[in-house]
Amino acid sequence: MNIKVCEIKSVEQLFQLNKLEIDYVGLVFDKSSSHYIRNFLEAADIALAEIDVLKVGVFVDAPAEEILKTIEEFDLDLIQLNGNESPQFCKIISNKIEVIKSFQIEDFNKKSIENKINDFDDVCDYYLFYRDNNLLSNAGFRDIDWKIINDISFEKPFFIGGGLIKLSDASFLHKFKHPDFFGVNFDRNFEKDPKMNDFAVISSFIQSVNQVDN
Question: Cα–Cα distance between 148 and 64 in angstroms, integer?
Fold first, then answer.
């Protein structure tokens, strides 16, 4: 299971996550977000960092020219599109770099998910499914009956993220078996505060995952 940690704001965080052998880190390029990376770091700080973790630029309805320029500027490895980008737009970006297309899922059922992803199968490399925190109880991942989507063939590897993942969900994640399940995306549930990831919680989750694996 791959692990992606989003909303990075410092080089120190990058190096800490690299030591934890995290697979992906998300850098937010949405100007309206409190996590907007340019408010915290220069492009060279990211581009020149000697790390193995893959850098994902997260955009929301940004112009293609801006995204393509930022790829070069920050030496990004993947792009995540979090807005209302069309399949045609995704294709423009995926011709240059691998793309994760995210979808907010209000109703976790076969028809709802298929309606969202059908037009994107040929124009992106990964999916990311999330749900608004306000629509979830404290149960997190356990709030969702994942059995109802086990018969969906996604055609692409997918992440589960947003408010769906909490520290207590490690064992539940491993009960969820799907051939296209690729990884989890950590964000606000793994922060000490809006400016700092909680590395102790992230590390505990990874240890829990490894214990389950064993």
Answer: 36
Of all residues in the chain, the percent with pLDDT exceeding 90 is: 47
Tell if the pTM clears 0.90, that is, is over it.
Answer: no
Both structure tokens of 46 = 């990211």
Q: For 20-34, what is the mean pLDDT?
A: 92
Residues 36-67 as b/e (b if ≥16 CB within 10 A, e otherwise) read ebeebbeeeebeebeeebebbbbbbebeeeeb
R_g (Cα) of the chain, nearest Å: 17
**Domain residue spans in the chain?**
2-213
Q: Please determine, for residue 5, whether its predicted confidence score (pLDDT) is greater than 80.
A: yes
Does the pLDDT at position 74 exceed 90? yes
Helix axes 199-213, 11-19, angle to 10 degrees: 20
Out of 3.90.1720.10, 3.90.950.10, 3.40.50.1820, 3.20.20.70, select the CATH number for domain 2-213.
Answer: 3.20.20.70
Helix and strand totals (H; E) in the chain: 7, 10
Place of tokens 């000697």: 50
